[in-house]
């Protein structure tokens, strides 16, 4: 295995020689050089793990060298050698990326300890990066597995069922038709679950920020309310939205914010009692617009409220309506992407209020109430 490589850049030859002697004895591969220019050249050819840089050198300064090391290879761990341990010089060197510093004169033990710490730090950072990459690769594989190995065959099963129920392969009995219809319903639920999960997973990988535009919150709430009109009417639920605020501007992806309100309002209808009410109100608090979606439904107990919004989490209760437990996870992710958040207040058997926080674009609000 390759020995850890250490480069020492110091204009004092005695320091270079001492460092080389001490670190050689520790089974490190050590190179030294006495000015910044040759130090930077060595970095390119030697590829050190840790570089000791003297802050005060003629020619290229230590600070300059530190900045260039960071640009060249951020995996290199730079350590500053300074003749004067002032807080100011230490802070300054940390700002340009130094991991640690060593004050002259230093003992062999101090040099060994600082070197070991810098090497441990490098190993931990590389390990963390490797794990992050592996996790990302697994996630990508899983997304592609779900969409190709799972979704695609299910879609083709659905097409075969359509062929059967459409009578294209001969007549089937009444009982047969009933079973095929049930299969279609269950399959449709499964496909919807998969599609929603894929959407959630993809929210994490795509940056929507380029598509953000200045949008007005109440107009989006209105669109969501209109979209769900028939669903609410089907359950006899009365949805009221009378905004007190105008021009609630925020910067966001229009489609995604509409998705947030469609999810919350449809839940408010779905988990409501027959002929219950849903009320949506807009208010503001410091830097946020807040939309409260309140219902008179089944509510959520205190112990369950903490888990609501976790992927696939559904509150178990009698007569639970069909669902996937992904809607609120999507809502939370979308709000997170917009530097907003979701808050929930609920009382079992009385109802819930889901509050959407979206950052204000600016402070030019106007309130109808206040004129
Ligand atoms: P789904 O509705 O598909 O199950 P969601 O992620 O939208 O998924 O909601 C997760 C769970 O949170 C639901 O199963 C339900 O138990 C609870 N929940 C969500 N909205 C409400 C609400 N307005 N009132 C009561 N419970 C709710």
Task: List the main descriptive attributes of the protein structure presented here.
Heat Shock Protein 90; binds adenosine-5'-diphosphate; Rossmann fold; 5-stranded parallel beta sheet; alpha/beta; 5-stranded mixed beta sheet; 14 strands; 371 residues; 49% helix; disordered C terminus
How do you describe this structure in short?
With 371 residues, the chain is α/β, with parallel strands linked by helices. It contains 11 helices and 14 strands.
Structural description of this entry:
- The structure is a single chain.
- The chain has 371 residues and is an alpha/beta fold.
- The chain has 3 domains: 5-106, Rossmann fold (3-Layer(aba) Sandwich); 137-203; 210-370, 2-Layer Sandwich (Heat Shock Protein 90), CATH 3.30.565.10.
- The protein is 49% helix and 20% strand.
- It is built from 11 helices and 14 strands.
- It has a 5-stranded parallel β-sheet, with helices on both faces.
- Strand 4 (77-82), helix 4 and strand 5 form a beta-alpha-beta unit.
- The chain is elongated and about 95 Å long.
- The termini are far apart.
- The model is unreliable at 363-371 (pLDDT under 50).
List the helices and strands and how they pair.
Layout: E1 5-9, H1 13-24, E2 29-33, H2 36-46, E3 50-54, H3 62-72, E4 77-82, H4 87-95, E5 100-103, H5 108-165, H6 174-205, E6 213-216, H7 217-227, H8 229-234, E7 238-241, E8 245-246, E9 249-252, H9 254-270, E10 277-285, E11 288-295, H10 302-305, H11 327-337, E12 341-347, E13 351-359, E14 366-367
Parallel strand pairs: 1-2, 1-3, 3-4, 4-5, 7-10
Antiparallel strand pairs: 6-9, 8-14, 10-11, 11-13, 12-13
Helix pairs in contact: 2-3, 5-6, 6-11, 7-9, 9-11
The structure holds adenosine-5'-diphosphate (ADP).
Adenosine-5'-diphosphate binds next to helix 9 and helix 11.
């Amino acid at each position: 295995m390759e020995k850890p490589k250490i480069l020492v850049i110091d204009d004092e030859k005695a320091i270079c020689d001492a460092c080389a002697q001490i670190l050689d004895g520790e089974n490190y591969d050590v190179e030294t050089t006495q000015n910044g220019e040759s130090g930077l050249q060595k970095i390119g050819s030697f590829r050190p793990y840790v570089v000791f840089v003297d802050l005060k050198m003629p020619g290229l300064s230590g600070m300059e060298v530190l900045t260039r090391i960071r640009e060249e290879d951020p995996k290199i761990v730079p350590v500053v050698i300074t003749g004067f341990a002032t807080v100011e010089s230490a802070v300054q060197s940390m700002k340009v990326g130094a991991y640690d510093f060593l004050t002259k004169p230093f003992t062999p033990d101090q040099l060994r300890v600082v070197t070991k710490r810098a090497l441990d730090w490098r190993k931990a950072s590389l390990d963390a990066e490797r794990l992050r990459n592996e996790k990302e690769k697994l996630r990508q594989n899983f997304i592609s597995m779900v969409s190709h190995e799972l979704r695609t065959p299910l879609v083709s099963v659905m097409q075969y069922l359509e062929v059967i129920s459409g009578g294209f392969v001969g007549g089937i009995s009444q009982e047969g038709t009933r079973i095929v219809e049930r299969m279609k319903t269950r399959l449709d639920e499964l496909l919807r679950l998969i599609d929603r999960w894929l959407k959630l997973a993809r929210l994490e990988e795509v940056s929507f920020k380029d598509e953000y535009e200045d949008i007005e919150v109440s107009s989006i709430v209105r669109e969501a309310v209109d979209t769900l009109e028939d669903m609410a009417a089907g359950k006899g639920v009365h949805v009221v939205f009378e905004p007190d605020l105008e021009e609630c501007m925020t910067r966001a992806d229009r489609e995604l914010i509409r998705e947030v309100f469609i999810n919350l309002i449809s839940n408010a209808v779905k988990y409501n009692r027959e002929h219950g009410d849903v009320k949506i109100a807009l208010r503001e608090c410091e830097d946020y617009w807040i939309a409260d979606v309140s219902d008179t439904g089944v509510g959520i107990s205190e112990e369950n409220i903490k888990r609501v919004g976790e992927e696939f989490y559904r509150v178990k209760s009698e007569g639970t309506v069909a669902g996937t437990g992904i809607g609120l996870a999507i809502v939370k992710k979308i709000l997170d992407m917009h530097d907003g958040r979701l808050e929930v207040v609920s009382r079992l058997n009385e109802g819930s209020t889901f509050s959407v926080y979206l950052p204000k674009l600016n402070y030019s609000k106007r309130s109808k109430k206040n004129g």
